[in-house]
Structures are given as C-alpha cells and as structure tokens.
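Milestone 3.1: sequence recovery, worked example.
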C-alpha cells in the first residue's frame, strides 16, 4: 500500500489540532489540505482514502496532469503556489480554491478569464513575514486589493493566506500568523467577511492553529520527502 500508516498519521494530526485549538479557545473546523506536489497520483488517492479530500498543488501544470489521472475521484483541488498571470486561463474553474492571489493584475485576469459564467473562490496572499523574496501583498496594501477584488465579477475572496519564514523554532513564526488573523479581524470591523485563514505547514501548523488557522497545508508530515 502506498504511504503506509497515513490514516494513523492523519488521526494523530487531527487530535493535535483539536488540542491546540482548545488551548486558545477555538472551536471552528480546520481543513487539512494534503499537499501532493512532487508526489504522484497515488498520493492523491492515499489522501482521499485517509479522509482528506482537499488536495493542494503548487504548480498549475502538475495539478492539471493529476486532475486528469484522478478525474474519477471526489477531490477538492487547491492551488497553493504562486500563480503567474499567463497561467490564469489554465487555473480558472479547475480549483476549488486558489490561495495565492496577491496583486490587482492577477485578480483582474482571473476575473476576465471567468467570463461571468462562473465564480472562482480565491484567497489573498499576504506577506506578513516581510521577506522580499516571498509572494504576497504587503499588509498596508491589503485593503486596496480587497476593494479592487470586490469590484471584479467572477472571483470571490473567501479569506487570507500567508507563509512564515522557515525556522527551527515554530514559536518565532507565531507573530506572522497572528498578524494575518489581526488583518482578517480588521477587515471584519470594516464590514468585509473573510472566514478562511490558510496558514501553517508541516513544521509550524500547530502554532498556526493556535493563532486561528482554518486551513493548514501539510505535505512532508503526511507523505514524507519525495520518493519516501
């Protein structure tokens, strides 16, 4: 069987999520997005078999190939990696959620490609770690981007996403996740409801959960490194 012990790992992760939510008084559901990038279609099937129908991919072309191979499976596909504007036409309508909208021209292109016939759910990626190499709108520019997205037909902003810097101590990443939650709460006071917070990966997801994550993106923790 591919990825032996996956069901047990998922059960353990769910238990830890519940424990860490309780620490901070959260009770909302947390979606585990199984990140299958660089793994084959067997990882998608294994995730679904372990009770994880939400599957995340970084690259559009790799995702589309897996979608073809797993067309019979009831999977909710997430695009979690950087989306180039010239790939928007391939992404629209193919993902339950695009996590990485971070600029006006990309939002406008997704809207144009939707053509009014559908509504593509998206998250706005925010650079809360202030790393110049990371994607994401700057926190101070978030409201302007949200206002622009509200004017565009064919896309629906459901929340925010961020990525913390890699660190040996997950506690050092807590301010990044807290900042995303604070930004979401600030927009709520202005009348914008953004229920989803996609934050936390294999090395730091429990800190993200404590800070209010509604989605965590787990790859290595579930499947191991590529080829394992």
């Amino acid at each position: 069987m591919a990825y032996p012990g996956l069901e047990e790992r998922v059960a353990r992760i769910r238990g830890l999520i519940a424990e860490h939510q309780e620490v901070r008084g959260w009770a909302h559901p947390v979606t585990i997005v199984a990140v299958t990038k660089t793994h084959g279609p067997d990882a998608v099937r294994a995730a679904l078999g372990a009770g994880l129908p939400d599957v995340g991919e970084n690259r559009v072309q790799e995702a589309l190939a897996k979608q073809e191979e797993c067309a019979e499976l009831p999977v909710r596909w997430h695009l979690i990696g950087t989306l180039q504007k010239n790939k928007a036409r391939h992404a629209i309508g193919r993902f339950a959620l695009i996590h990485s909208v971070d600029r006006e021209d990309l939002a406008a292109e997704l809207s144009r490609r939707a053509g009014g016939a559908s509504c593509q759910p998206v998250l706005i990626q925010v650079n809360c770690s202030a790393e110049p190499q990371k994607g994401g709108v700057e926190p101070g520019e978030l409201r302007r981007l949200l206002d622009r997205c509200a004017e565009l037909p064919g896309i629906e902003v459901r929340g925010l996403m961020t990525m913390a810097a890699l660190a040996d101590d997950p506690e050092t990443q807590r301010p990044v996740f807290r900042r995303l939650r604070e930004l979401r709460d600030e927009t709520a006071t202005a009348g914008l409801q953004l229920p989803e917070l996609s934050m936390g990966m294999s090395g730091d997801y429990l800190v993200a959960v404590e800070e209010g994550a509604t989605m965590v993106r787990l790859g290595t923790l579930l499947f191991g490194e590529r080829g394992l």
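The beta strands are 31-35, 54-57, 76-79, 97-101, 120-125, 155-161, 196-198, 215-218. The first helix runs from residue 6 to 24.
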